[in-house]
Amino acid sequence: MKLRALSFAVLSLTLAVTACKKDAKEDDNTSTVDLETRVTTHADDQNRVSNEMDAVDNDVNSYLEESGAFGREQDVMAPPCNTTVSFDSTQAVRRMTITFSGNNCANTHARTGSIVATIPLQQRWRDSGAVVTETINNLRITRLSDNKSLTINGTRTLTNATGGRIASLFMPGPGGRNVVRHRIDGSMTVTFDNNTQRQWSVARQREFARSQQDSLVITVTGTHTDGQTTGIAEWGTNRFGASFSTQIVEPLRFAQSCHFRLGAGKVQHNGVGATTVVTYGLNAQGAPTGCPGANPYYFKAVWTGAGGNTQTVIRPYF
Question: Strand 261-270 and strand 179-191: pairing?
Fold first, then answer.
């Protein structure tokens, strides 16, 4: 009887230990899958928000460059597609309202909503230190390849740090410039395709320069510092409710010769479950590539997973 009881106890203990090991293994697998989902989804979200706001900034700059109300000069950027613009002023500010109502020029994204840009009446956009305040109203951006959308609301300031116009990069003589730098600071509410709504802050510098091929090149860097972490371009809460920051560790590069698509650069995401380094401007094999024409670029996300194993995911983007 004692032997049977002992055997039953041993069997029960063995089953319990086996079940615990199985549960732990299942938990580990679930954690691994969940971590990959969180890392790659956030990398895609950040790329979409950053990339599309850069595209919107190009549209805003195009209208700022050609606007008489803001101090017109030659526009060297392509006019935006499916947008309308109106101007008015008060005793204190000049105001420009851009309304988005269709696909972008590349037919990769559809956009609706508006941006209202204001500048103090006594300033001109070409002045060094001139500040344009942007109010973003229900700017909904839909990626046509999968119909996933983002909706952005918020306020940002656009500061002409160097002075001058982008057109001055192509002017000969004393009126010309080698670079023009704009600073962008602000906060936004981002609503994702699963209806989660989060707060993001932004602090970036966009530098415009003339390439050897006489076209425009834009490089983007982060300007925010948090403790010992520098080069932060965005920070806030991601769709999973985690606090994050994104550093630009190698400047993001956009070339007019490739329709201002993100063609190079590297960022690091912190606080998303694992420190993740994302490299842009790659082909499907994860190697640097030139402009892919109508095809997608790819980004490569690399992080350290469970057990110290390096994980890599390659995803397309437009």
Answer: unpaired
